[in-house]
Write a structure and sequence with these properties.
Blueprint: H1 8-32, E1 44-49, E2 53-56, H2 62-81, H3 96-119, H4 123-128, H5 130-143, H6 145-148, H7 172-181, E3 183-187, H8 191-194, H9 196-209, H10 217-235, H11 261-270, E4 272-276, H12 280-298
Antiparallel strand pairs: 1-2, 3-4
Helix pairs in contact: 1-2, 3-12, 5-12, 7-12, 9-10, 9-11
């Protein structure tokens, strides 16, 4: 609940919790007053359902009262031991974050020796170790499939990790660097600077150098001049990109967002921003090393 931006919710939950317990106690006390004298028979209350089903004013059975009391006692004890009231502390000093850190520390102590073993090995060697590769695969399925897919082939805006087309480089060192530091790709928006017609010209030039036959010769010729003046700074004179900048190769048929004229026009007009989170702080060196080796192994059979 500490993630809520307003302190109101903490007091709201505490109030509802306390009133709920108090109401349960009130219901229990009022219903315990119903008693039958010796020999007295229960009377109907006048409530009927389905014609013949009637409600009697029988006292609450003892087992029901006992369960109700235990429920109230349990609720009070829980709120005292754990932070159920949100706005107050708790006797155990428990928190979700604290429990998570404790569990992570226990797991690290248990498996650290194994992580240290693989961290001392080059990524290429780790990638060839079946046990390490299986560990890396499980890490990938836990943390990476949300963006790159269960088959690691990516999706629109998320790179395919099973081929040899890399925005920042596919060497073991570069893959680990990507996981450790994260990446932030930035394609500036040129729509306002170029105007609609010049954007379409550049898009047709890109179609031409990528080997796509669906381009307009006249527009491509005009687009070549704009490309040489502006786009060459990142994508290079031949359009083969620059891995130091994360600028993609425009001469192949591999596209992060799509290679149609409409999509290229959209990219040039509005720009693109893509973020790969940094994982070192969250996963630690050992897991990052294993994960890097697994990602590296995915593209090795494609060479």
């Amino acid at each position: 609940m500490t993630d809520f931006t307003s302190g109101f919710w903490g007091y709201f939950i505490a109030t509802v919790s306390i009133l709920g317990i108090a109401f349960c106690g009130y219901v229990l006390l009022t219903q315990m007053k119903v008693k039958l004298k010796k020999g007295e028979k229960a009377q109907v209350t006048g409530h009927k359902w389905d014609g013949d089903l009637e409600e009697y004013n029988n006292p609450l059975p003892g087992w029901w009262v006992g369960m109700f009391v235990l429920t109230i006692v349990f609720a009070i004890g829980y709120l005292w031991l754990y932070p159920g009231l949100v706005v107050m502390g708790n006797a155990k000093g428990w928190s979700q974050e604290g429990q998570h850190k404790e569990e992570v520390a226990k797991a690290d102590a248990k498996y650290q020796a194994l992580y240290d073993k693989y961290t001392a090995m080059p990524i290429e060697a780790v990638a060839k170790d079946p046990n390490a590769n299986e560990m890396g695969k499980r890490l990938f399925q836990t943390y990476c499939v949300q963006c790159h897919g269960s088959d690691a082939r990516g999706a629109k805006g998320f790179p395919n990790l099973t081929d040899n087309d890399w925005l920042y480089g596919g060497s073991p060192a570069k893959i680990e660097e990507t996981l450790v530091k994260g990446r932030q790709g930035q394609m500036p928006a040129f729509g306002a600077a170029f105007g609609e017609e010049k954007v379409r010209d550049v898009a047709n030039y890109v179609l031409k150098i990528s080997g796509n036959a669906a381009f307009n010769d006249v527009r491509a010729a005009r687009g070549a001049e704009t490309y040489k003046q502006v786009c060459v700074a990142c994508h290079g004179a031949e359009g083969k990109g620059n891995q130091d900048l994360g600028a993609p190769n425009l001469t192949d048929k591999i596209w992060l967002y799509g290679g149609s004229e409409a999509t290229i026009v959209e990219t040039v007009t509005n720009g693109r921003t893509n973020v790969m989170p940094a994982w070192k702080e969250f996963l630690g060196d050992g897991k990052v090393h294993l994960l890097s080796a697994y990602v590296y192994s995915l593209s090795q059979d494609k060479k």
